[in-house]
UniProtKB/TrEMBL annotation:
It comes from Thalictrum thalictroides. The keyword ATP-binding does not apply. It is a multi-pass membrane protein. Belongs to the Tim17/Tim22/Tim23 family. Keywords: Membrane, Mitochondrion, Mitochondrion inner membrane, Protein transport, Translocation, Transmembrane, Transmembrane helix, Transport. It comes from the Eukaryota. It is found in: Mitochondrion inner membrane. It holds the Pfam family Tim17. GO terms for molecular function: protein transmembrane transporter activity. GO terms for cellular component: TIM23 mitochondrial import inner membrane translocase complex. This is Mitochondrial import inner membrane translocase subunit tim17. One of its GO terms (biological process) is protein import into mitochondrial matrix. The keyword Protein transport applies.
Length: 82
């Protein structure tokens, strides 16, 4: 998609932050499930993995959304100055 076909910048920042949050949820869920399952005792690996996802994935996804929103903000700023 070329630069002229995307939404104008105020809407684009929100869209990119939301997309980043969704990608962060997916990636951090997989990562935290594996990490939680590895650190749990043998009979409780599945429960430990899901508990780790529930506790850590939203915070990591939020951090990823902030990064995506800031990146898009700087991109729009540079695009507006050029």
């Amino acid at each position: 998609m070329s630069e002229t076909q995307r939404d104008p910048c105020p809407h684009r920042i929100i869209e990119d932050a939301g997309t980043s949050f969704a990608m962060g949820v997916g990636g951090s869920s997989i990562y935290n499930y594996i990490l939680g399952a590895r650190k749990s005792e043998i009979g409780r690996r599945k429960r430990g993995g899901f508990q780790s996802v529930r506790m850590n994935a939203p915070a990591q996804a939020g951090k990823f959304a902030v990064w995506g929103g800031l990146f898009s903000t700087f991109d729009c700023t540079i695009y507006g100055l050029a």
